[in-house]
Specification:
There is one protein chain. This protein has 493 residues and is of the alpha/beta class. The chain folds into two domains: 282 residues, Aldehyde Dehydrogenase, Chain A, domain 1 (3-Layer(aba) Sandwich), CATH 3.40.605; 194 residues, Aldehyde Dehydrogenase, Chain A, domain 2, CATH 3.40.309.10. Strands 16-17-18-15-14-19-20 form a seven-stranded mixed beta sheet, with helices on both faces. Strand 5 and strand 6 form a beta hairpin. Helix 2 packs antiparallel against helix 4, helix 4 runs parallel beside helix 5 and helix 9 crosses helix 10. The longest helix is centred in the first third of the chain and has 20 residues. It catalyses: an aldehyde + NAD(+) + H2O = a carboxylate + NADH + 2 H(+). Keywords: Oxidoreductase. It comes from Fonsecaea monophora. One of its GO terms (molecular function) is aldehyde dehydrogenase (NAD+) activity.
């Protein structure tokens, strides 16, 4: 059911705000709640139960109880539940869209996470029976083999920028591999995770297999990271929080950790690039999800001979793709193309970076200011030739801001592109196949796009970072393997 708003858009009603433990929605044991604020209106959307250590303990107990029976099922049997879940997720795309619109500002007309994740769930369910080991007959009088087995109780801590996608990137392979799991969503965008919990119950997934908590990082997240009965944790978010989680894992029970952290992705435009295509792709990369994407191409290096022409095309593409705020920017209206930043803190952080660049005397080609007087909207911003060691070039801004710098040679641009502690995504546009392959080999990142850029990803290929962008991989067969432990068995004949 929905309630109508004056502007004709529809607003979600009957929003679930409790914790999901052992297939039941329950209030937090402390009774505490936190507010979720609509970043388009700056008004409270819902008050959500806030989990603490006691709730984490309850969720872990439920997961631990469910593990023996769940892990004893075959991959085919576990997949059956997830095929049902995929259908439910797909049919709920519009409901997911509305919840994310009023919690973190994603426009409903651009929302496809439910549909995309239904495909991902089906893909992973089809892979569930492919969790297997190897055998060897190389030792006389022995048959030796390996097999993969689930860890047991696991955990996932998901970010606010893509809550449905990131939840399923972790939960689907983890649970299909035989684990049970405790999920903590971001306090900025917890509502869609609770809808996922409801759909898991409707799909018949047994009690305790999937538990969903809402809470803050310093309290709920810390309790999960340090819990002695959680054997593995996967986290997507900032490098600072990732370090804290890994430290807590090391200091507790040495739980295994998968981290997908920040990025400062370089995009290289060579002189032989197809400029219209490159400019359009670059604009889309920094505008997608209002720039709140870890793989956004925020450092654009352009060959000096084409700098002026490329900048003209890029500014035009940003203006075209960024939408016209005078035509409305309500995320609940289907014609809206770009939403606000997720919350006040994110908005203020981005504006601080822009102000610092302006103070340094950098040329701002487009944008550079707040958009409107209500909501956390920021004009898409392109900064020309900032200092290579400035904050806007070195730090992850996580907003619709990109920096453009020129280069002369291939060796120079490789040095510049790799001069970062991040290594999540890198891109290059060139018609020279040999040069493209050199870029693929020498760019220091977990993913390289050639004549394409982020957010280009596919569900069947591994994704993850190097350097301080993380460790471990999600998606594809690698994801299932990453949620299992390898055991070796020697059989004497």
């Amino acid at each position: 059911m929905t309630a109508s708003l004056q502007n004709g858009a529809s607003y979600p009603s009957n929003i679930e705000t409790r914790l999901f433990i052992n297939n039941e929605f329950v209030p937090s044991q402390s009774g505490k709640k936190f507010d979720v604020v609509n970043p388009a209106t700056e008004k409270v959307t819902a008050s959500v139960s806030e989990a603490d250590g006691a709730d984490v303990d309850a969720a872990v107990r439920a997961a631990k109880t469910a593990f023996p029976a769940w892990s004893a099922l075959s991959g085919f049997q576990r997949a059956g539940y997830f095929y049902k879940l995929a259908d439910l997720v797909e049919s709920s795309n519009d409901e997911f869209a509305k919840l994310e619109a009023v919690s973190m500002g994603k426009p409903v007309g651009k929302y496809t996470e439910g549909t995309n994740m239904a495909r991902f769930i089906r893909y992973m369910a089809g892979k569930a029976a492919d969790v297997k080991g190897e055998s060897s007959l190389q030792t006389p009088n022995f048959v030796n083999f390996t097999f993969r087995q689930p860890y047991g109780v696991c955990a996932a801590i998901t970010p606010w920028n893509a809550p449905v996608t990131e939840l399923f990137f972790k939960v689907a392979p983890a649970v299909l591999a035989g684990n049970t799991i405790v999920v903590k969503s971001s306090e900025k965008a917890p509502l869609t995770s609770l809808l996922v919990a409801k759909l898991c119950r409707e799909a018949g997934i047994p009690a305790g297999v999937i538990n969903v908590l809402s809470g803050t990082g310093p309290i709920c997240g810390a309790a999960i990271a340090s819990h002695m009965e959680i054997r593995k944790i996967s986290f997507t978010g900032s490098a600072r929080t990732g370090r804290a989680i890994k430290r807590a894992a090391l200091e507790s029970n040495l739980k295994h950790v998968t981290l997908e952290l920040g990025g400062k992705s370089p995009l290289i435009i060579f002189e032989d690039a197809e400029l219209d295509k490159a400019a359009s792709a670059a604009a889309f990369s920094i505008l997608y999800n209002s720039g709140q994407v870890c793989i956004a191409s925020t450092r654009i290096y352009v060959h000096a001979s084409i700098l002026e022409r490329f900048c003209q095309l890029l500014v035009a593409a940003v203006r075209k793709q960024g939408g016209n705020p005078s035509e409305g920017n309500d995320p609940l209206v289907s014609t809206t193309v770009r939403g606000p930043q997720a919350d006040k803190g994110q908005f203020e952080s981005i504006m601080t970076y822009i102000a610092g660049s302006r103070k340094a005397g950098d040329q701002i080609l487009v944008g550079g200011a707040r958009e409107g007087d209500r909501g956390f909207y920021i004009q898409p911003t392109i900064i020309l030739e900032p200092d290579e060691h400035s904050a806007v070039m070195r730090e992850e801004i996580f907003g619709p801001v990109a920096c453009v710098r020129s280069f002369q040679t291939e060796e120079e641009v490789l040095r510049l592109a790799n001069d970062t502690e991040y290594g999540l995504y890198a891109s290059a546009f060139t018609r020279d196949l040999s040069r493209a392959m050199r870029m693929a080999r020498r760019l220091e990142s977990g993913t390289v796009g050639l004549n394409c850029t982020s957010p280009m990803m596919t569900l069947d290929m591994p994704f993850g970072g190097i350097k301080q962008s993380g460790e471990g991989r999600e998606n594809g067969q690698h994801a299932l393997d990453d949620w299992t432990e390898l055991k070796t068995v020697y059989v004497g004949l």
